[in-house]
Amino acid sequence: MSCVNLCTWVQAGTSRSRSSPFKLLHPLKSHGFSFQFSKSQRPISSSFFTVSAVLTKQETVKEEEGEEKPTFNFKAYMIEKGHSVNQALDSAVALKEPEKIHEAMRYSLLAGGKRVRPVLCLAACELVGGHESMAMPAACAVEMIHTMSLIHDDLPCMDNDDLRRGKPTNHKVFGEEVAVLAGDALLAFAFEHIAVSTVGVSTARIVRSIGELAKSIGSEGLVAGQVVDICSEGLSDVGLEQLEFIHVHKTAALLEASVVLGAILGGGSDIEIEKLRMFARYIGLLFQVVDDILDVTKSSQELGKTAGKDLVADKVTYPKLMGIEKSREFADKLNKDAQDMLSGFDPEKAAPLIALANYIAHRQN
Predict the structure, then answer these.
(1) Is the distance from CB of 138 to CB of 278 less than 8 angstroms?
(2) GO cellular component terms (predicted)?
(3) Among 40, 66, 199, 357, which lies 20 to 30 A Cα-Cα from 95?
(4) CA 306, chain centre distance (Å)
(5) Are the beta carbons of 143 and 89 closer than 8 angstroms?
(6) pLDDT of 32-80, one tens digit each?
(7) Cβ proximity of 20 and 220 under 8 Å
């Protein structure tokens, strides 16, 4: 496992290994990718690009004339995309017989949430020239799988949690047996939904996306991170390398799949897909670093879930190993490196991903 070197922070890189797609920070050239940036394609930095300054040629002229420059409305974008995703999820998982299992599936799937993963999928699709409709089934699928992981995480045999998104957890409402089956059903249906409902995309790209998603959640992806996380509880010798392994697999893998699926289904080239893969890998780890910080700095009411549970479970976290301030510095660095991977893309089309990275970095729950 190639881990983050916290002395020198993070250097941008990528991996396109089929056998283990979730390693961090391998040099680009060692995997056959060497991105040469022209002056016009150098990594995006806050010095010349921010989410609040996405300009078209016409708007640039207006700015030169002294008019106020336009802003990218991230809140409106998330509301619009979130509404589309919620409608698609509601339609995909209808309340039908057996009513009990579908009710349990819908209870957690439609309980709200930030819909970060499906929005990442849609934004990546549109960034490479695709249309939202091409990636919507995949966006719904990753949210179904994410919801499955939350239902199972909350079970008494796992994290034993009573609260999720401000509501009683699934097993508290429907019982442990139905909660397990609701998660299983969502997992199975996610793949069916991509296979059956994706339109306007070649069969080869649909199959490739299904394989990508399956690997991200299996024994080399989400499950791997979950198992190592469980086995690490209460241990005193867990270091940063093992902690990174846990979160690159447990948290970043599904975020990475969300972005990569969008890029594949949207018609992205291999180079574009791998750059977006690395972007997602950075923000995936960023998501967990921020989550660890919030767990020890916010209340249960503020988070909508039980606060301080990692401390109670004696889990290893970034604040525990690095302290709060160093963890925040690390989060800032991951955010910058993620945004650097969006160089060469149309800045206007990249604005949603830039905004999402900043949102993940600065979220409060």
Answers:
(1) no
(2) cytoplasm
(3) 199
(4) 21
(5) yes
(6) 333 333 333 333 333 322 333 333 333 343 444 455 556 889 999 999 9
(7) yes
Backbone Cα Rg of the chain: 20
Distance CA 214, CA 348 (A): 31
What is the distance between the alpha carbons of residues 68 and 48, in angstroms, rounded to a whole number?
Answer: 17
- Three-state SS at 16: coil
pTM, two decimals, is 0.77
DSSP, residue by residue, 179-207:
HHHHHHHHHHHHHHHHHHH--SS-HHHHH
Contacts of residue 178, defined as CB under 8 A and 6 or more positions apart, other chains included, come to 100, 101, 104, 170, 171
Distance CA 246, CA 248 (A): 6
**Token pair listed for 197:** 């409902």
Q: For helices 132-153 and 253-265, what crossing angle results, to 10°? A: 160
Cα dihedral 165/167/171/174 (nearest 10)? -130
CA 359/CA 354 separation, integer angstroms:
9
User: Residue for token digits 């990569």?
Assistant: 260
Are the beta carbons of 139 and 121 closer than 8 angstroms?
yes
Report pLDDT digits (tens) over 277-316.
999 999 999 999 998 999 888 666 665 656 555 655 567 7
DSSP 36: P
**Residue 298, token pair as written in the block:** 């916010």
Task: Kindly list the distances between the CA atom of residue 92 and the CA atoms of 72, 88, 140, 262, in Å, as whole numbers in the listed order.
Answer: 30, 6, 8, 19
Domains and CATH numbers, the chain: 74-362 (1.10.600.10)
CA distance 144 to 150: 10
Retrieve residue 325's tokens: 């301030």
Q: Which two tokens stand for residue 350?
A: 């990249």
Residue 47 CA from chain centroid, whole number: 26
Contact 306, 168 (CB under 8 A): no
Output the CA–CA distances (angstroms, integers) from residue 67 to 46, 59, 60, 81, 283, in the order listed. 21, 9, 9, 29, 34
